[in-house]
Amino acid sequence: MDQEAEVIENPDNLEVVAPEDAHVIEPLIFKDREVGNSSLIVLNQEIHSIDLEGLWRNTKLHICADGGANRLFEYWKKHQRTEEFVPDFIVGDLDSLKADVQQFYEQHGCIVIPQYTQYASDFMKSMRLSMIYFQSETTRGLLYEPIESNKGLEFIQLEPAQVSVDMYILNGLGGRFDQTVHSINQVIQLAQQFVQNSFRFITPDDIVFLLRKGVNYIKYPSKQSFGCQGNPVCGMLPLNTEVVLNTRGLKWDVLHWPSSMGGHVSSSNALVGISGAVIECSNDMIINIEHSFN
Amino acid sequence: MDQEAEVIENPDNLEVVAPEDAHVIEPLIFKDREVGNSSLIVLNQEIHSIDLEGLWRNTKLHICADGGANRLFEYWKKHQRTEEFVPDFIVGDLDSLKADVQQFYEQHGCIVIPQYTQYASDFMKSMRLSMIYFQSETTRGLLYEPIESNKGLEFIQLEPAQVSVDMYILNGLGGRFDQTVHSINQVIQLAQQFVQNSFRFITPDDIVFLLRKGVNYIKYPSKQSFGCQGNPVCGMLPLNTEVVLNTRGLKWDVLHWPSSMGGHVSSSNALVGISGAVIECSNDMIINIEHSFN
């Protein structure tokens, strides 16, 4: 029953029709308008080369993971605008958060939630907080009450069917490589349990997100909207498990194409679909698309 | 027969004896002395926060992958030392190499080898060139003759049993995420065929390398030699396939511990062995260790 794998080189512009039953993903939606149940999670690395103001305005909930608050503060201090961009929450084991930063944000309405357990990372705690916030008014209300400081967030129950959050993650990739792999792995894991969530890592170079098993249609206003020179470069990255790929709208479309680490990986590919591309995958996988805020 | 997985928290300093049959890896050897058959491969990203001079002096062969030559040139131009650090070879499809950089390096003895095929990346071409150079005087000699410009390097035969090169890779990780994954995947693939090679990605934050299936002993002069505050942080990253881990000398040692993407991954762990640690893995895997040149 195995069909032979094929690679097809395409011209630079291709009209691609969205399949009827496709899972539609709009990776650039946050540049256009406010996203419904959306959170911005800032992790502890230097912030540079992104439109933080736009990202902030178009996401509803703003969370700093521990020392991520220091980075946010430093960034806006340079622009003398710290008071305009106060996170809703700071969460984590607080081994990095600076006292003056904590004090400033608390004075401006931010809630600090210590969670000292070392069996979850500050990133995991931030993702859990996002889901608690958007699950219901009841669970959201609990975030404004005292929370047990070791792992109180874990005691607040989440019902996967009720949770649907679009998470935008800043500073999750790059830096120490185990942190990069940890970030990706946490998203892979959480996505298995919470199938309605979406995840976008925003980096200075690209947008990195999870593709669900099945037929995905990546929709965008135009290729130019990614802000790159030429076709936006992309890669389909089977970091979870082996995947069989079928695509339509890439510079090098693949058909019945098995992809795995240690085997074939489609990197340095590119989007040529004029306003969308189809990626069908036999398992969840990670994709990145080149993107610049310039 | 399955033994139960265990995690053991250790004190901050632990005497760890090297097992007799272990594969000994010295990740910091390049800081101490010149490494035998070693190549430095410079890829096309900005160079920063590393001791490039030391790395250059302690590696024998210096290769720039296409636009990596621009980065090398820019870096040394700032220090007005471009003439002291001329690469032996520039290889790739040459779509990024600047004409003035090419001219300067050629005038100073560098050999430029165009390889236009798009079925291999400039990184792959650089690794292949390294192996050809060190395999034998005969194959090395071919590099100084004209080489077919599409994929001539692929026509030079390599015998895995005769090839043993330590490759140091600069700018292979970070930047666009598909490039990072591509770099890792190429190393995983090449290591399967060329079992005597070793690979080190050198980044501003860490050293990333491949652990071979079996018992590995990571040997270092002292924990301080990694240049970090406190214990050097590390992660065992099963990016290839599932691995069962047994360790001795980490802050959180693991026993009979299955690790996989989508499952458990040991990140933000740390070396506590005073001058070494043992990592036994049931398959090849990637490890990173925090490292600073400061």
Automatic annotation (TrEMBL), chains A, B:
Thiamin pyrophosphokinase thiamin-binding domain: residues covered: 214-287
EC id: 2.7.6.2
Any one GO molecular-function label of the UniProt entry: ATP binding
Matching SUPFAM superfamilies: Thiamin pyrophosphokinase, catalytic domain, Thiamin pyrophosphokinase, substrate-binding domain
Gene3D superfamilies: Thiamin pyrophosphokinase, catalytic domain, Thiamin pyrophosphokinase, thiamin-binding domain
InterPro entries per UniProt: Thi_PPkinase (IPR006282), Thiamin_pyrophosphokinase_euk (IPR016966), Thiamin_PyroPKinase_B1-bd (IPR007373), TPK_B1-bd_sf (IPR036371), TPK_catalytic (IPR007371), TPK_catalytic_sf (IPR036759)
Pathway: Cofactor biosynthesis; thiamine diphosphate biosynthesis; thiamine diphosphate from thiamine: step 1/1
Catalyzed reactions: thiamine + ATP = thiamine diphosphate + AMP + H(+)
Keywords from the UniProt entry: ATP-binding, Kinase, Nucleotide-binding, Transferase
GO biological process entries: thiamine diphosphate biosynthetic process; thiamine metabolic process
Family per similarity comment: Belongs to the thiamine pyrophosphokinase family.
Protein's recorded name: Thiamine pyrophosphokinase
Species for this entry: Candida tenuis (strain ATCC 10573 / BCRC 21748 / CBS 615 / JCM 9827 / NBRC 10315 / NRRL Y-1498 / VKM Y-70)
